[in-house]
C-alpha cells in the first residue's frame, strides 16, 4: 500500500520535472550585442533579451509566422509600433535610458517578450 503511494508521488514528481525540463525553460535569455536577431514564429525567439543601458541596440526582427496576430510588434516603453511583413527583416533601433524589464507584445497583446535593460 505505502509502496503504491510512494510510486505515484515519485511518478507525479517525475512528470512535473519532465514538463519543466522540456516546456518550462524555453524562455531563454539572450544577451544582445550591437544587434540581435529575433524570429517571430509562434512567439518571439528569443523572448527575453538583455541589453545594456544607454547603448544603441538594433533588434532585427523577422516574422516567419503567417498568423496575422503577430504582424505587429509593440514596444510600449519605447513608443514603438511596427508592422512586420512576412519573411522580411525589420530593424528597430532602441537606446534604453533606464534600467528595468520592459515587455513587448504583438498587436493584440497575446504574444509576449521582454527586454531587460541592465
Ligand atoms: Cu496577437
UniProtKB/TrEMBL annotation:
Keyword terms, alphabetized: Membrane, Transmembrane, Transmembrane helix
Residues that span the membrane, as ranges: 6-23
Highest taxon above the source species: Bacteria
Domain EfeO-type cupredoxin-like: 15-117
UniProt xrefs under InterPro entries: Cupredoxin, EfeO_Cupredoxin
Protein name per UniProt: EfeO-type cupredoxin-like domain-containing protein
Organism, scientific name: Candidatus Woesebacteria bacterium RIFCSPLOWO2_01_FULL_39_10
